[in-house]
Amino acid sequence: EKERLRFRQKFDVVQTHLSTIQDIRFWAVRKDGESRYLNVRMSANQYGEKCRHYILVTDMTGWRRREEEQELQWTIMRTVVDQFPHPICCYGEDGRFFLANDVFCYLFSCHKDRISGEHLREVMPPDICTVFTSGDEALRRRGGHEMQNIRIPGTGTVPVWCQAEKSTVTVGDGGAVYFFCVILTECPQAPAA
Q1: Cα angle 108-112-115, degrees, rounded to a multiple of 5
Q2: How far is CA 19 from the centre of its chain?
Q3: Contact at 8 Å (CB) between 117 and 96?
């Protein structure tokens, strides 16, 4: 009933504002009981004293189901990352964050909802950023994962050495490379130079 009302409202707009195009997307149930996700595009044009209505119905069920699957996958991944007890972040080759969990954001005094798209240099002090990214180029060329010694803000003003497991994630064939980092443990001492 709600979908019928939305459709009627869009149809009324087309009737009163000729030559406009209105789109409405909704789930509909066919007579055989199967659900379909439809896009209905409506337009009305005046031709002399007559008005012609155009309605194009497109079945977008496959597209919508794939979109819902991707939304669910993103929600699951985000939930896993957020509930992990160690600091986690993911950033691109360009040094811009894709995501980070609450623990990572707390560590670097930034906000989780605003970190996506921020550059590492905008979030980390320069000396920490330099050490944090020092092995990235070699890791990108080699691929896979490795343990790295990095520095993170400590209590007071002294950074703390930690071990982090970093891995590369390549999207598509020859596509963008992302670095996925989990900060695991504090090192007992600073690594040898």
Answers
A1: 75
A2: 37
A3: yes
Q: From CA 127, how far away is CA 106, in angstroms rounded?
A: 19
Q: Which residue has better confidence, 168 or 12?
A: 168
Helix or strand or coil: residue 134?
Answer: coil
- On whether the pTM is more than 0.70, the answer is no
DSSP 50: E
Q: Could you tell me which residues come within 8 angstroms of residue 102 by beta carbon, excluding any fewer than 6 positions away?
A: 82, 112
Give the distance from CA 16 to its chain's centroid: 39
Secondary structure (3-state) at 33? coil
pLDDT tens profile 68-100: 999 998 889 888 888 888 899 999 999 999 999
Contact call for residues 181 and 164 (beta carbons, < 8 A): yes
